[in-house]
Amino acid sequence: MQINRYGPTFMIIFGTFSNILNICVLRERSLKKIPCTIYLCWSSISAIVFIWSGLLTRTLQGYNINWPNENQAPCKIRLYLLNISWAVAIWALVGANIDRFLCSHHSVIYRQLSTAQLAERFLMGIFIFFAFVFIEIFYCVEAKVPNVPVACYGRNLPCRVINDWVYLAVDIILPSIIISIFGTLTIRNARLRIVRPITNLIHQIATTKNNIVLTRRNDRNLTHMLFIQVSFVFVLDLPFGIYRSYASLTANLPKSQYRVAVENLIYALIVLLVYFTHSTSFYIYTLTGKLYRATFERLRRHYFNFNSI
């Protein structure tokens, strides 16, 4: 009860503040047209929806207010929004990794695919896809389900197993595999790629070399930031997928009150761990990205520098 009362409240404030700052920085004029930052920005927007749709009910539960999980409509709508926003937040990072691969490739054809238009189409596509995938929640999920970690849960064992395996596949396993593949390819591209100045356009000769150096420096910054974040997210999200599978498979087994109490405690901690991973993007980017820090400092000076007044 104490964890549900204070932990989610802190995480809502912490995560909302982090993601709003992240959106502000990534929408800055010098960054907002870069395809990778479009993916990261939408990941932060989805993370805010994910945090509020998941943690607000846990905060209320800490004060013995359980009506969102005990009424059918709020239960189903909340889980529908939660699952879509979680999936979009994860797959936006997948898109960002694919973009890093494209823009680091030695072939001009591949590099030309790294565009803002393609990023927007990818994000719209995954949103529509997951909106259809999770429609099954309106059938499978019920309120007031007994003997499970939270009352708003799968109505029977087949639904629980399907839902939990969808969580594992869509939010953890498949994104991890794709990110590992494209991350490896991006590292290989960075080692193999040789960029030569353009010599056939006379008026660009003087500036091409400096532009290439600046672009590659920015690309390395974004790639470094992204790799650290996705590693952080997937390592800390994995316990949730494992525990949900365990909870579903043992939901119909007889359990002592002590075992139920221990499982509920573990679940409360694991849930906070999941939301923590999606609440730290601003802090991770600030610590790991020189380009990000420079942009944030420029915004801070612009909006909060009162020394000149």
TrEMBL record:
Single GO cellular component term: membrane
Cited InterPro entries: GPCR-Ligand_Int (IPR052954), GPCR_Rhodpsn_7TM (IPR017452)
Membrane-spanning segments: 6-26, 38-57, 77-98, 118-139, 165-187, 226-246, 266-285
Signal peptide region: none
Name under which the protein is recorded: G-protein coupled receptors family 1 profile domain-containing protein
Main localisation: membrane
Record key words, sorted: Membrane, Transmembrane, Transmembrane helix
Alphabetical list of SUPFAM superfamilies matching this protein: Family A G protein-coupled receptor-like
Highest taxon in the source lineage: Eukaryota
Compartmental location: Membrane
Species this protein is from: Adineta steineri
Record-annotated G-protein coupled receptors family 1 profile domain positions: 18-285
